[in-house]
Every structure is written in structure tokens, then in C-alpha cells.
Write a structure and sequence with these properties.
The chain has 693 residues and is of the alpha/beta class. It contains 17 helices and 37 strands.
Length: 693
């Protein structure tokens, strides 16, 4: 059974083909103007490398699983739909009020985020539903039509609808959707009770608005890609990676395309958790350095949990379940420049077009990749990106001289080395921020390094963080694409239910879970999956009276999408006790004298999938790896002749003592002084700090 995983990054589009027990990787330059062009080109090149045409390849493929940054790029670039917001009278400025949250509390000049829906396109309608779902004030349909026509005159391309307590009673939102269909037929509409059917109000409004803003571009791209795949011979449904770490059909995502936000990084973390379990490394620091960004995530206990609620993404809250990943503008294409006497690297990127100067495609500003070439870590003589092109030194020295060396008053090689020091410091600080915020000591973790550039920087970062073991999978250059093949088809949804735990209605809870199960059953069946083979988790969100935030507690598990097979009365007692335990574990105390409140019910369902084989172990006899050559390189101790190894020629048991450079087909693994690398039984690299170094 063939399966293809695809991950689109800012510089490269990565593809991983699982054929039997073999994995075939391919990289091609991304096409930002239309990412589907790069995907189809990459598939053609992958087919050609196997001696096939594209139609033959796609007809053998049972699943195409896709992760993309298109939603992220839409937010970052501010190129989403012209969006309007209809909300309850008196709540026009919910987005502006936010949460009093500031990304950098020490920067007094930090401006607030640009509102993706300006005030003139945030309109209110007279209506009011109370917290128990009763209608206090009926919807004023005449006023609603006037507001819709006002939005039409402003040229809106998408509308978000977020009314007070619509997650309890969605009648008014549904009627507004009907009025919008009458006044503006065909216009995309995002209803908050469908996107995020729960409180709090700001989180629900923000998530719905982001969904409306990115939705048209995301759905348009996915429809275009699906059509091109179908025309090329693919006969099945395109599966798309979600930020929660699961995959699902386009039809499921059509109502909430915001669910694919940060899907590429999520795929890498899911794949990392699977690889860590296979290699007995259950607590991992996952670092992914590509061409444009650097992603950091922590895996504990072999799991990559998706958390809902406080997910600030590109300065906007998206309160859907998301694998926790921190992203920094640091990659191979990050531009090196001097501003006001300060050397800066990123977050601006040369991207895929024109790319770094050494790509020879017209780039003028030096980048991290250019610095790697100057320092001898990369070479003009080696094939780059799987042999799709070679790097060139032409123009690189001049770019460093003009933009870095001359303003800073030293030579080109010193400038290149300082650029690596700065980008390393930026990435290491991102790791410290990510781990410290959760009370995690990075010294307790193993590092998993992937992405096209991750293995070139991993050891020096690990050394600064006190980490002594690094895993570099042979598939690291396209690891997020491979992660999409590890991810299981999954649905993770919730429904609001507000009640003290002692007065909760067990039958109402069962009915809400049954509603979620029926919805999941429909989409799993549509994807061609057996609903009876699905693993299901029934959960509850609870909090103590007076608290703003809830904790998630699992109530029960079952196989197959059916009604909850547990007595509901006993279940409530069990859930309350689990909540007390979870609260004590999270916050250090429990308040058993207080009756917790239920704020919502959750159902997470995942189908089994045939994942790529992942091996571990280090049983092969250790022997020195034969170098393929030597070259002048700077690995932190000045320029010297450094052994260079040809990765495809290395097998289980081969050992490399640093300093050394391993050239794999799509990446470069750097073994810095004081480190050694070994190839394990699966052909992956394990780097360890030499005792006493």
C-alpha cells in the first residue's frame, strides 16, 4: 500500500512516499504564488526518480496526506479575505479589548496586533440569548438585513457571526446565516457555534474571525490541489493535517479551515513522538529548522498532546486543540543584516524566491545558508536538496562584505561566523522560553533534530542547553512530511455544557456525547474508515467556582463510535475525583470542599493507521566510519581540515568522532568537537556528548 505525505514550507515542499517498508524522500522549491504548483511538480519529480510517470504513481497511492502553512502565511502576510463581523449589540469591540495579554511585557513600544476586522466592519444586531439558552430579546431581522447590506457596500469577502451564548442556543446565528445567504449568496460564512461551540466570549470571537479571515484562501487552495490530483490520476479523498495532530478529509475541514493552522509543525511533533517511543526516548525536545522558521515543541511520556484554549498564534487567539509548538523566524533563508549597529538574523527570510545568494537565483542579502557555505559546513562541490541544484559561492562574499562585514568592521569569515552565533542564540533562547514556561529542565530531555537545517545546528544548541543526547533520523529533511503518515485520522470536538457537577444531568451529557459521536461517525465513514475500529475518548472540562480556565479530564474510553458504555452517575463521581487530582498535579493544591463546575464535554476519536516503520536499538558492532574526504571548515574552533562523510555509505555501527561533517542527500549533520555520532540499527544518527568534554 503506497501513501504520500506532503509538507509545504516557506522555502521547500517536502514529500515522503511510503512504499511497502521503504520510505522515499524528495524536496522541491516551494511556489508561494500557488503552493499546489510546487506540490504537483514535486510529485512528478518523485515519480521520475522511481522510473514512473505521475499517473502511474498516483494510481498506486491509497492516501495523500497534506500539511501546509497556507493558513499561517495568510495571517503573517495579512492577505486573508476582507472580513466582516456580526455580533450581539453591545459587544462590537470584543476583539479590541482582548485579554490584556502582551507578547513582550517589557517592550513599551510594542503596538497592538493589526485588527484583521477593523471597527467599521464590526457591526452589531439587536438580539439576546441568556446563559441557559432562553431568548431574552428576539433577533431584529430588519436591523440584521441593514447590517448585512452595510457590509456588502464595504466589499466583504467573508463574514464571521458570533452572538452571545450561541453555543447554548444557536437559533439566532442560524437565522443570520439564512439572511446572509439571501442578501449575499455564495459568500463564505463562519458561525461561532460551529467553529468553537463554547465560552469564553473573546476566545470564541477571535477563533471565529480568524477562521473567516483565512478560510476562503485555505479552502480555495485545497479545492485546487484536490482537482489537480484528480486530473493527474488520484482517485481517493485528499486528507489534510490538523493542528491537533490528526488528519481528516477536506469536507470535515470545510466548516472550520482554521483547524489546519500550524499543521506542518504539528506533523513533525507527532512523528517525533512516534520515533521517540521506538527508541526509548519518551521525553523529547523537538527542534525543526527549515528554510524559513524554527519550531520548538516538547513531548512528554511519548505523547504530543493537543491543548485547547490559550493558543496565541501570530498574535491572535485560536482556541481549538493545537499541538503546542513555538515558532521563531530562524531558518536557512533568514537574512543577516546590521541595523543601528546591531547584527540581526531574521525574522525576515529570502524564502524560495529569490532565496539565499548561494542559490544563484538573484538573492542579494546574505542568509544563514550563505554563512554555512562560507564556513565550509556546506560545499559548492556537494549536491544540494537531493541534487536538484548546486550552491555557488559567486556573490556570497560580496553580500556579506556589503551588508555585514563592512558595517561591523571585520572580515567576511568573521561576519559569517557571528551570524551563526546570533541565530544559534535566538534558537536556544526560544528553547529556554518554551521549557521554562512549563517548568521543564531541558537537561532531562533528549533532543530530536530535523528539518533541512536542524542537524547542522543541533549539537551546538544541545551543548548550551546541557542536553547530552541527540536523535537525528535519516528522514529528518522531510520529517514533517513523514509525520503526516504517522498521524491518525482524528476528530477532536467539544460542546458547551454549563452546570455544577453535583447538579449535572447525566442524560443531557450522554445526549451531547452521542451528538458528537454521530458527527464523528459520519466523517469517518465518508473517509472510508470503519467507525467501529475507532478509538474514542470521552472527556469533561471542569473548574472550581470563580476560576476562568477549565482543566480537561478523561471520563472514559471505548472502541467504536457508540454511546458511552458507562453508568453516568458513577461516571460523574469518577470525573470529579480525577479533576481534583489533575488540579493538584497542575497547580499544587486541591479544593475538595468545593463542588467543581462543568463547562463542556469533549470527544476525541482516532482511527488506526499503518504507520511507516520506525526502528531503534544499537546492537551492531561499533566501527569507525570511513571519511569520503576533507575540507576546510569552521566548527567553533577556527578553520581547520575537517573529515567529510558520505551519509548514504554509512550503516549501522559506524561511529564518527567530532569534528566531522556528514553529507546526507537532503541535509548536513554536523558533529562538533566534543561530540560523537553513531548510526543505530535503523540507520538513524545518535549524537552524544563525549564524557569529560
Amino acid at each position: 500500500m503506497d501513501r504520500v505525505g506532503i509538507d509545504i514550507g516557506g522555502t521547500f515542499t517536502d514529500l515522503a512516499l511510503l512504499r511497502g517498508d521503504r520510505i522515499h524522500l524528495h524536496k522541491t522549491l516551494s511556489t508561494p504564488e500557488d503552493p499546489s504548483v510546487g506540490v504537483m511538480r514535486g510529485l512528478e519529480q518523485l515519480a521520475a526518480s522511481l522510473g514512473e510517470d505521475l499517473r502511474t504513481l498516483l494510481r498506486r497511492v491509497d492516501a495523500v496526506v497534506h500539511a501546509t502553512t497556507i493558513a499561517d502565511n495568510t495571517l503573517i502576510e495579512g492577505k486573508g479575505a476582507v472580513t466582516g463581523l456580526l455580533t450581539t449589540e453591545g459587544f462590537r469591540d470584543e476583539l479590541e479589548l482582548r485579554r490584556g495579554y502582551k507578547e513582550d511585557i517589557w517592550d513599551v513600544r510594542l503596538p497592538p496586533p493589526r485588527p484583521i476586522v477593523p471597527r467599521r466592519r464590526r457591526l452589531t444586531v439587536p438580539e439576546r440569548i441568556l446563559h441557559d439558552g432562553t431568548v431574552y430579546r428576539p433577533l431584529d431581522e430588519d436591523a440584521a438585513r441593514r447590517a448585512i447590506r452595510r457590509l456588502a457596500r464595504q466589499g466583504v469577502e467573508s463574514v464571521a457571526v458570533c452572538l452571545l451564548f450561541s453555543f447554548v442556543n444557536p437559533a439566532h446565528e442560524r437565522r443570520l446565516a439564512e439572511l446572509l445567504a439571501e442578501e449575499l449568496p455564495g459568500l463564505p460564512v463562519s458561525l461561532s457555534h460551529e467553529v468553537l461551540p463554547r465560552s469564553p466570549e473573546f476566545e470564541r470571537t477571535s477563533t471565529t474571525v480568524v477562521n473567516a479571515y483565512v478560510g476562503p484562501r485555505v479552502t480555495g487552495y485545497l479545492e485546487r490541489l484536490a482537482r489537480r490530483l484528480q486530473e493527474a490520476g488520484f482517485e481517493r479523498e485528499l486528507l489534510v493535517m490538523q493542528s491537533s495532530g490528526g488528519v481528516m478529509t477536506r469536507d470535515y475541514l470545510r466548516g472550520a479551515p482554521v483547524r489546519i493552522l500550524a499543521s506542518g509543525p504539528a506533523a513533525g511533533v507527532v512523528g517525533g513522538a512516534a520515533l521517540g517511543r521506538a527508541k526509548d526516548a519518551f521525553d523529547l525536545l523537538c527542534v525543526d529548522m527549515g528554510g524559513t522558521s524554527y519550531d520548538v515543541a516538547v513531548v512528554r511520556g511519548g505523547r504530543a498532546p493537543a491543548e485547547a484554549g490559550w493558543n496565541w498564534h501570530h498574535r491572535y487567539v485560536v482556541a481549538l486543540p493545537m499541538v503546542q509548538v513555538e515558532t521563531l523566524g530562524a531558518g536557512g533563508g533568514s537574512i543577516c543584516q546590521v541595523r543601528a549597529g546591531e547584527l540581526r538574523v531574521g525574522p525576515e527570510s529570502a524564502g524560495a524566491d529569490p532565496g539565499p545568494v548561494c542559490y544563484g537565483r538573484g538573492g542579494e542579502h546574505p542568509t544563514v545558508t550563505d554563512a554555512l557555505l562560507v564556513l565550509g559546513i556546506l560545499s559548492e562541490e556537494a549536491e544540494f536538496a537531493g541534487g536538484s541544484f548546486r550552491l555557488t559561492r559567486r556573490g556570497v562574499d560580496e553580500a556579506f562584505a556589503k551588508h555585514v562585514a563592512e558595517p561591523m568592521g571585520y572580515g567576511v569569515e568573521e561576519a559569517a561566523y557571528d551570524c551563526l552565533r546570533v541565530v544559534n542564540a535566538n534558537m536556544t533562547q526560544a528553547v529556554r522560553r518554551t521549557t521554562a514556561e512549563r517548568g521543564i529542565d531541558p537537561r532531562d530531555l533528549a533532543m530530536l533534530a530535523y528539518g533541512g537545517n536542524g542537524p547542522a545546528f543541533a549539537a551546538i544548541q544541545a551543548q548550551e542547553l546541557g542536553i547530552r543526547r541527540i536523535l537525528v533520523p535519516r528522514t529528518s529533511p522531510a520529517f514533517s512530511a513523514l509525520g503526516t503518515l504517522v498521524a491518525r485520522p482524528a476528530i477532536d470536538e467539544e460542546r458547551a455544557y454549563l452546570a455544577p457537577a453535583g447538579r449535572a444531568d447525566p442524560e443531557r451529557m450522554r445526549a451531547l456525547w452521542a451528538e458528537l459521536a454521530a458527527r464523528a461517525r459520519h466523517f469517518f465513514s465518508e473517509a472510508g474508515l470503519d467507525p467501529e475500529a475507532v478509538e474514542v475518548s470521552f472527556g469533561v472540562h471542569l473548574r472550581y467556582p470563580g476560576q476562568n480556565w477549565s482543566l480537561f479530564v478523561e471520563a472514559a474510553r471505548s472502541r467504536g463510535l457508540r454511546d458511552l458504555p458507562t453508568d453516568s452517575t458513577d461516571l460523574l463521581d469518577l470525573v470529579v475525583e480525577r479533576f481534583h487530582q489533575a488540579h493538584e498535579a497542575e497547580y499544587g493544591h486541591r479544593r475538595e470542599a468545593e463542588q467543581p463546575e462543568i463547562t463542556g464535554l469533549r470527544l476525541a476519536a482516532a482511527a488506526p493507521v499503518e504507520a511507516p516503520p520506525v526502528g531503534g536499538g544499537m546492537r551492531a558492532a561499533t566501527r569507525p566510519a570511513p571519511p569520503a574526504g576533507r575540507r576546510r571548515a569552521h566548527l567553533g574552533e577556527g578553520f581547520r581540515e575537517v573529515p567529510v562523510y558520505h551519509g548514504p555509505e554509512l550503516g549501522p555501527g559506524h561511529r564518527i568522532e567530532g569534528p566531522g561533517i556528514v553529507e546526507e542527500r537532503f541535509t548536513t549533520v554536523v558533529v562538533y568537537p566534543g561530540w560523537e555520532a553513531r548510526v543505530d540499527d535503523a540507520g538513524d544518527y545518535v549524537l552524544e556528548r563525549v564524557a569529560g568534554a
